[in-house]
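Question thread 4412

I'm putting together a teaching handout and wanted feedback from people who do this every day. The idea is simple: show students a protein as raw sequence, then show them the C-alpha cells that encode its fold, then repeat with a second protein so they can compare. Below is the first pair exactly as I plan to print it.
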Amino acid sequence: MQETEIIYNVTLLVWYLFSFVMNIGLTILLVISKWKINVKANEQGWAAIIPYYTQYVFFKIAGKVKLFWIWLVGGIVMLLSYLVLLFTAIIGFFGMLSIGFYNTSTGSGVLIVLVISLIVFIASFLATMVTNIMMLVGLSKNFGKSGGFAAGLIFFPFIFFPILAFDKKITYIYNQQYGWNQYGQQFNNQYGNQYGQQYNNQYGNQYGQQYDNSYGSQQQQIWNQQQQQWNPYNQGQNSPGQNDNDQNQNI
C-alpha cells in the first residue's frame, strides 16, 4: 500500500508540475503572439503585456472600439457581482446551520441578494463573452481570414493566435479595405488618371496651342528682327563685296 501511495503521489506531483510548466509556456506564447499581431497592425507591441489595454488594442485592430466599453463594463459588473455572490453564499451557508434562518427578514434578504447577484453575474458574463466573440470575428476578418479561422481563435487560441502572428502571408488589411489605402488609391488611379488625362488633353492642348500661337509668333518676330539687324543687306540690298564684283563684271 505504501509503495502504491508513493507512486500515486509522485505521479500526481509530476502531472501538476507538467501542467504548471505547460500553462506558463502557453501563456508566454500567447503574449508573444499578441505582441506580433499588434506590430502587424501598426500598433505598439508592448500593449500585449498590459491588462485591459491589450483588449482595447485588439478591439481597435478589429474595428470594434465601441464594443470594448461594453466588454469593460460587463467585466467590472461581473467581478462585483461575483464578490457579492460569494459573500452572500458564505452568509447563506452559515445561515443554513441555524434553524429557521430563511424564515427571518435577514434570511429572505440574503436569499434575494443571492438570486439577483447570480442573475447579474450570468448577464454580465454573457455580455463579455459575446463582445469578445464579435471582436475575434472582426479580428479574423480584418486579417483577411474567414469565419472558420475566427472559430479557431475562439476555441483554440493557443494554436490560431500564433498562426495569425507568425504567418507572413497573413497581413492586416483593415486600413486597405476601409481606410484611405484601398479607396484612396483606387480613386487616384481611376479618377486621378481619368481626370488628369482629360485635363491634359483638354487644357494642355488648348493652352499649348495658345502658347504656340501667341509666344511662338512673338518669338519668331523677334528672331526675324534680329536677323534683319545682323544682315541688313538681305532685304533687297547687296553686301559691299557683291557690289564690287558687280562693278568688275561691268568693266
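The second pair follows. I'd like the answer to focus on this one:
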Amino acid sequence: MKVSKRLLKNIGHEASYVQKNSTDFLNVTNESYDLIYMDHAESGDSDACALLHRNDVAIILSRKLLKPNGLILIDDIQTPFNKGMYSVPLLKECGFNQLSKSSYQALLRKG
C-alpha cells in the first residue's frame, strides 16, 4: 500500500484502500467492478487456495459484483494446485468465456 500511495501521489491521483481478507471484502463491498483480479493466498501443495478462489467467485456471482462486460483475472493457473482449478470451471458453467489461452493467468468475461 505504501508503494501504491507514493506512486499515485507522484502522478497526482488518489485511491481508496481497504485492508481486509478477500472474502470479508467481497461480502461487504457495495460496489461493482470492471475488473476483479484474483491472486490471493499461495497455491502451495494443497487445493486450499483454489477452494478460497472458488468460494470468492461464488460471492462475486451471487452479489453481482462484476459490471456488465466486466473481467475476472485469475493468476497462477499453471501450477500443480492452481488457483483457478475450481473457480475457472465454475465461471465457465455460469456462462463466462476464457479469453486467454495457454497463459499463466485466466482472463474471463461473461457471454
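Top answer:
Good format. For the second protein you could add a caption like this: The two ends are 34 Å apart (CA to CA). The chain is about 35% helix and 20% strand.
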